[in-house]
Each structure stands twice: as C-alpha cells, then as structure tokens.
What we know:
CATH class of the largest domain: Alpha Beta
Largest sheet: 6 strands, mixed
CATH topology of the largest domain: Rossmann fold
Order of helices and strands: EEEHEHEHHHEHEHEEHEHEEHEH
Distance between the termini: 32 Å
Number of domains: 2
Strand order of the largest sheet: 5-6-7-3-8-9
Shape: globular
CATH architecture of the largest domain: 3-Layer(aba) Sandwich
Radius of gyration: 23 Å
Number of strands: 13
Amino acid sequence: MVQAKALVKRFGDFEAVRGIDVEVRPGEAFGFLGPNGAGKSSTMRMIASVSPRTDGDLRVLGMDPDVEGPRIRARLGVVPQQDNLDTELTVRQNLQIYGRYFGLSRAHVRSKAEELMEFAQLTDRANAEVDSLSGGMKRRLTIARSLVNDPELLLLDEPTTGLDPQARHLLWDRLFRLKAGGTTLIITTHYMDEAEQLCDRLVVMDNGRIAAEGSPADLISRYSTREVVELRFPNGEQESAAKQIEGLAERVEVLPDRVLLYTMTGEATLEQAHARGLRPLSSLVRRSSLEDVFLRLTGRTLVD
C-alpha cells in the first residue's frame, strides 16, 4: 500500500524527515509514534500526496504521488488532527456534499450518508448542525466523512486527541471494524495504549529518523524487560535508594518522584529490595508497556 525508500523532506535548511524506509502492507494498521517534531506529520502529508518529497522514492497504492497525486487522493481517506467539518451544515449534509467532491452521484451519496451515520452512531443526529455536537460526535463524523469514497487506505492523524475515555474506546471499536473489513490504516498517535490496541506494526520516529520498527509486543521484548517495579520514596531519597538497589535489575531509572527497576521478575526483585532494607512509601509491579519503550528510545526531555 505504501513503500518509501530513503524518503527525505526538507523545509529550507531544516530536514524534517531524514531518509526513512517504510512499508505498509494491505489490511494492516500501521502506526507512527514519536515526540513533537519527530517528522510524523511531514511523512503523513507526503503519503497523503499533498506535500512533495524532497528526495528518495515513494509509492502509494503503487503510484508516484508527484505524478499521480489526484488519482491517489481519490482512493484515500484522510482524518486530520483538527476537525474541519462544515459547522453550519447538518451531519447528513456534511457527508453528502463531501461525497459529491469525488464525483459520486446524488443517489449514491444519499445512500452512503445513511450507511456512514449508522456506522458512526449518528443517525439520531442526522439533521443536527455540527456546532451542536459533542467533541466525540464531531470526531466520529470526521471519520465517517473520510469513508465516503470507500478508501483503500485511511490516514488518521491523532484520531482521539482531546476525547474522553468513553469516546476514545468507541472510536477504537469503529477502527477495528474498518480494519476487519479490509481497510488499511495508518495512524499517528501520542497515546501509547492506543498504539498497542490498534497497531499491528509501528515505527518510533525521533529527530526525523526511525529509531525502531516492529509490532508492539516485539518492541517491548526488544527494548524493555517483562516487568517494571515502581518504588516511590519521600522527596530527596531517590538517589540514595537507587544506590542500595544497584545490581537488582537490568536497568534502574531515577525519576523525581520514583525509582523504576526494569526486571524479568518483578515480585522477586521487590522482595530483594525489601531484604536490603528499602522501605518505599509505595511499590507497584507492572508489565512493561510501549510507553517504556517510547521513553527509552526518545528520552523524557520535552521537545518543542
């Protein structure tokens, strides 16, 4: 569906994407993770055929975006990070008018609008203006609108940002259904649990390059341990506690409010810490997550 080789995007002297290789297979959900400024959005815009590449090779649906951009865009669905719905139109009108941009007949878009409103659970709001909808409803409508042309490839840029947990899970359910129906998904997200839930494979981008690639489970196995022990101490005691812990875990990370021990056997490591006289305010043994991988690869420093 997408194949990039040594893909580069420059803006003047700034190199946003620095020679990445990406392959997205039919029917999978593929994710781009990375901090702000990592190059995710620039890559997505090149795949969407709205921003020309600077160098390298890119094929989307087997075509060159620089040559066949309109043909590619006709077969894509795009969910932007910010909803750009026509706020003075109704839910139904947003779907029908957007469908007409693709040259679809009035009869077809009327039927398609009803189908998509049912898919997005918006049938009861069909005649409501967009301004009256909740944030979750607007997001579902944006996704529904992106499907009006039955796209083979759906690009979703931060699809659930700003939504409450119930709305996020409802959107996940809609995306699972699309994938089950054969639609290929490419997703950028800042939510690690979302990436673990939705993505078959993903890349972690940092500073315009790919730092790691694989399934969520593969990345956790490769870059973290099976479990993590979190120990919380009174302010100022983390450093001294970390010295007492030396040798107990494969990796120890000292944070302002806690100490993390990366280990294969969390309970046994916790018992050994107690045996050394450590008495944390609280302790927690948990499974390693994609967030542990993400922070190890990209760091904990805020990127503007």
